[in-house]
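Checklist before submission:
- one chain only
- standard amino acids only
- sequence pasted in full

Submission:
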Amino acid sequence: MTEFLIIQDIVVILLVSLPIIFLFKKINLPSIVGFLIAGMIIGPFGFNLIKSVNQISVMAEIGVMILMFTIGLEFSLSQLIRIKKFLLVAGGFQLLITILLSIIIFSLLGIEINQAIFFSLLVSLSSTAIVLKILSDKDELESPHGKISIGILIFQDLAIVPMFLMLPILSGFGTLGAGDIALKLIIAFGVLAGLLFLARFLMPLIVYQIANMRSREAFTIGVILLLLGTAYITHLFGLSFALGAFIAGLILSETEYNHQVVSDILPFRDAFNSIFFVSIGLLLNLQFVLNNVLMISALTLGILFLKSLVVVAIVYFMKYPLRIGVLTGLGLAQIGEFSFVLAQAGLNFKLFTNDFYNSFLSTTIFSMILTPLLIKFSPFIAGKSSVFEKNKKHNANYLEELHAHVIIAGFGLNGSNLARVLKETGIKYVVTELNPDTVKREKARGEKIIYGDISKEEVLKAVNIDKANTIVYAISDPAVSRRSLKLAKKLNPRIYALVRTRFITEVDELKKLGADDVIPEEFETALQIFRKVLERYHIPLNVIMKQTTLLREESYSFLRKEGGDISSFTHLDEILAQGLTETYYVNEDNSHINKSLKELDIRAKTDATIIAIVRDGKTISNVSAQEIIKSADTLVIYGTHLSVDKAIDLLDAK
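Returned file contents:
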């Protein structure tokens, strides 16, 4: 029966996962912490409910692949190219500086140089799975610290390849020379570039053929095949499974099938993710931790501090506010899951003793456990960091002259479109933006934009918040929006505050903080669907607009309440029974051209009446039965909703 132990282990993990998700949601903590702790409790070094870690590790690897695949789906290749600066500059410097500082520290602690280098490689990597999951759950992938974090994490994943090639050299009995290493690197990254090129053209065609089968099962199986197949190909050439899965998601994100792919994959992702985080907790030797509490605590805190400090310095050097640096640094402070893979390889090359290996595992797991807590409290810590920043004087003349103007926070798609409209209408405005490249580029184009964090009092005062008429939050950082809104209302209680948010659940909190209007993208989409459906049934435009306005004025409360009072809507059955006027344009290929209205006999067949014809810009109001229908005519039809629909169907008939 030993071959079925894996099923028992999965049952145990899922059985533990459900109450953990419930409990940690109640206490408002990320469930990841609970999964890690659960793994420690039920694992071989706890109550020993799970004895075989190897089989669980395979399933955990699948969990990482699915997570990376879904993250890739939320991005696109063009978005990745836009963050190349973060990937190359921030990622490169983070890895290099962290490794160099770690080597110095480990050498001072008396560790041999080859082991010091190896340990430094392990420390330099962060957890892609944990950081991206938390950023995704918080809807902060598009925030400045989210983009920087993603750039650094992707660079780290790419760096795994040269790190593996260094192991035989560090072990002291390696046979690889510099030429061999260079060749392997060229092959690995050449395969990566080739895979990206081929996938960009082949994958959409493959998915189209699968979708064309019109089978839900075939589509789901095909997507999983593409995911695992791409991951396996990258693994064969020395890259990680996770990187291949990310590439597959990245390519599919630019196809029209990405929404269906996400809906099919999400259930797998959530289930396998719990297995992944529990599997990490399984590895922890609790007895070793209890015997070495002080050492492991010092190591964990030291690594968290060192890695945070390095990232904060790099982000600040890139001319981002200290707050962004702190948010990014605390998020990337842990040791990552790919360090486990590197550590396992290091054991084979005898770069680890048992004590060192257990110390590494313990430190890594505790750094992971602390990460969700650090990220949760990072906005508070980042807010306190502003006291260390120097006030910057904004000396642009137009800032001093601004009054009754609009302040736009963020120059993304929404912010830039609003700025263009305000410019065309002659309304004064100023933009605040945290991307220094965007500020530099747009200033050169004459845009009224400054570099600054809108949640800081100095920046709000610099854009004359006390004289402003309106402030619009067009940013993708909910925490910054909330903090800035509270401060803006304190500095100018009369200002009209309009906040863009992604989810309807955030409306009430933003209203309490002083937002005059909140636009949740989630239900603006729902309103557009609602409007299009009613238009399809010829509901008069004024009625549609009335219902849409009603929902918006009530802050979408009807849509947020279960079992809402339907009487708040005008009775649509009464509207449908009333008459309406509709127009019908006669195309040149219409089969009824050159027929008389008598031949068409619309009234007898549908109960609708053609009351006028617009032809060559002139209206024929007294329409006789002998009137001939001509190409480019516009027929004015009167009747009930049902009769008008029948008349249009009749006119469309071939």
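Reviewer check: The radius of gyration is 31 Å.
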